[in-house]
Design goal:
Largest sheet: 6 strands, antiparallel
CATH class: Alpha Beta
Distance between the termini: 52 Å
Structural class: alpha+beta
CATH topology: endopeptidase fold (from Nostoc punctiforme)
CATH architecture: Alpha-Beta Complex
Order of helices and strands: HEEHHEEEEEE
Helix content: 25-40%
Mean pLDDT: 87
Low-confidence stretches: 3-20
């Protein structure tokens, strides 16, 4: 009887630990990671051309300030979250026009991508490319798009990816 109790206790503890774990942005990528060289992200050599273009586009906006509504076709001096993601995906050839954050909940295909994953909810969107997170809120409110290696809790976000990537 004690062996049965011990087995039940072990199974229960495993269930509790799995249920209480929080998924982060880092949990959605297990491929070759981008690296930083002289402050710029560099995609793995074998990554598709669209991924290399996405990384180059994200590198180009690293010093942009945050501006609500920035990056959606009207004059602006900065980018917001969806403007940043839209800029990167447009430069990579993966979308034709900008989208607000909530529209990314239906973008591409469901689930994580092999190279690029987009995390969207009403009011915010961010993305990972080769394991690096591009986010406007990675270092606090009011900061423009920046690379981050720190994981972010993804609770409440819809996880999507460009088809084939």
């Amino acid at each position: 009887m004690t062996l049965l109790r011990l087995l039940a206790l072990v199974c229960l503890s495993l269930l509790v630990s799995c249920a209480s774990s929080k998924k982060t942005s880092q949990d959605y990528y297990d491929g070759p990671r981008a690296v930083f060289v002289n402050g710029q992200a560099v995609a793995p050599r074998r990554a598709p051309a669209a991924v290399h273009r996405a990384v180059a586009a994200a590198n180009a906006i690293q010093s942009a300030p945050y501006q609500y509504g920035g990056g959606h076709g009207r004059p602006s001096s900065g980018l917001d979250c969806s403007g940043s993601v839209s800029y990167v995906l447009r430069r990579a050839g993966l979308i034709e026009s900008t989208m607000p954050s909530s529209a990314y909940r239906k973008y591409g295909r469901s689930g994580q991508g092999k190279w690029i994953t987009v995390f969207a909810r009403s009011g915010h969107v961010f993305m990972t490319i080769c394991g690096l997170r591009l986010d406007t809120s990675s270092q606090g409110t009011g900061i423009g798009p920046r690379w981050s290696t720190k994981p972010r809790n993804t609770k409440g976000f819809t996880v999507r990816h460009p088809a084939g990537l």
